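Consider the following input, taken from an annotated entry for Guanidinium exporter (Sphingomonas carotinifaciens).
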Amino acid sequence: MPWIILAIAGLFEVVWAYAMKQSHGFTRLWPSVITFAGMFISFGLLSLAMRSLPLGTAYTVWTGIGAVGAFVLGVLILGESAHPMRIGAAVLIVSGLVLMKLSDG
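Applying the prediction step yields:
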């Protein structure tokens, strides 16, 4: 169950990062509200997952999900660059996440 909670926390990190981009520096109300709500939920779920997962594993996986998720969202929705080197970097991050999960047992 902690891994599911951690995955959901990572997805909420993507939500708040995207909402922050849409808030235009917190000048738009609803994207700003979604940003802070997403942060609250993401951090709350991360703290629950950390009750039974090691700090290094939980934090690395959480930030990795957020980083790769934000990258994918940026490419698919915001039209950001899908340069092969950026894709390679995302693949390396995902590889690291898989290794973290496997090392946790």
